[in-house]
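Before the break, one more example. Copy the sequence into your notebook; we will annotate it together after we see the structure.
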Amino acid sequence: MKKIKYITLLFAGLLFYSCDLDTIPTEYVDKDYAFSDVENVEYVLNGTWSYLFDTYSTYQNPGWSCVLLASDAMANDAALQPGKYGYLAHYQYTNMNSNTATSVSAVWTFAYKTIDNTNNIIHYIDEVEGDESEKQRIKAQAKALRGYIYLNLATFYAPAYAYDPEYATVPVYTEPTNSSTEGKAKSKLSAVYDRAEEDLLDGYEQLEGYTRNHKYQFDQQVVAGLLARLYLQKEEWKKAQEYAALAHTGYSWMTRDEYVQGFNENNNSEWIWGHGQQKDQATASYSFHFRDVSSSSSYYYSFMADPWFKEFFDEQDIRYQLFEWDTSRFKGGLMYKKFLFRSDLTGDIVLMRKAEQVLIEAEAYAELNEPAKAIEKLNELRNQRGALTPDLSTLTKEELIEEILIERRKELFGEGFGLSDIKRRQKSVERKSYPETKLTINGVNITVQGHTTTRISSEREFRTNDPYYNFVIPDTETTNNPNLDE
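Here is what the structure looks like once it is written out:
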């Protein structure tokens, strides 16, 4: 039987970032040394996190941010600039469904090397020397990280949970592996969710009372937010609402002025979870070359906005101010200037915000037939952004849910929820061409540029629950693990 290829002991990276910790060069570490004491195990945990977010595969794949970028490129509201490097093939649906694509291999490798490292931590840490409470805290954070990865695998490698919980998706590993480990078969989607849920619940319980030092670390509120996402996807609405409320308790709204300053600072009062960057450790910052469409230092500035997207916003909404027509580099493209490089060409990566968790509460309340509470949560966000708050009390349940889903698109653009929201709600990608429109902006004549891909292919319209929305397993993995065909 051939063996798995990508599940290998990594222990890469005693590497840190954003002035959170001292810098130590990335190296492969001997297992006996790595698990000789609790301090070294923490190095393994931090190095695993650093590997996940600060490892290049290609420039198009700057760590796990590539998954968030792919999700938005494959959705409704980013109209990627034609001819630009990075994510255009995702946008055109010729990438994440190609088992030879570099992005397909990158995502798989990032995920399963991270899983294997967490498996090693969970398996060995009880045997190492050190303070028992520290050991349990590290184990809890390793479980939370493993749960986060399995939740993402369930999200992107399968259709909606409600559509087919028996869907054969990805293998589940919970024990350390090596080069002689036999590869596992695909697990049912329900089993992948169960694995993620158990890990996150264990992490949540074991992190009670822990106060983290840095925003990249898992604490109880971060794990609550991940559980809220999981239960949202499983349509367990009451649990989604309860964990979302726990996740954002104590976090305050950013000001309207802060909203237009670039979404690049971990110290933002709304950020519950984020990955910091500094000049000499800035791999994840490379994602801003795609997201940042207005800075002169951005190489690709490819994630332009669909002009129809602008129609969702009220003119007094602070988010409306982020729209600007490009009159120089990509004439007629609609810039949405949410993400901006800092002056040193770095930018922290937002992973969870209060706004997202409040919107989870709103959606859950609507599904629980508590429209007044849903509207209250929706308006809490809209008030913070200066948006209108029309009377929604006469809407049907379905209409109210659609209002909330549109608000998610408006608020979370560029943060990685585009495709996952389409999939979990069993919707279709919706892109329509923009009519030929000529404008004069500051004396410059432009022709408005909208979506250039409005179908999966010339023969195939976008549709609900389309297999093309699911990431595929790379051919190198299926070749080395024939059990995946079972």
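The radius of gyration is 22 Å. The beta strands are 271-275, 323-325, 334-336, 349-353, 438-441, 444-447. Try to locate both features in your own notes.
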